[in-house]
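Sequence in, structure out.
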Amino acid sequence: MAGFGFPFAVTPRGTITPDPDDDADLRGRVVQVLLTTPGERVNQPEFGCGLFHLVFDPNNTIMAAAVEFTVGQALTRWLGDELVVAGVDVRSYEEELVVEVAYVRRRDLAPRAVRVQFR
């Protein structure tokens, strides 16, 4: 699946220009799943995992384990046809939460990672 190029354009043959950077497109969709809260989308109320709201939760090992499970399940559910979740690492420091998702793009088996930090 390819996204549309930005700005949106039509080739001289009348076709739509594809997104030239598939990596950025998939990475953006991973971040979108991570930061979207379930219930936020009207037509897909179960979409997302609500990572953004963890800023207000206690920063401990129980929360970190729950985040690892939730993130892995959400990415598998919503992007499972495009990637395989290789691992989710959640580290908490004093006032910072770091979530790193390692995944493999199914199309070419290229390993990738996304890192999200909250302070």
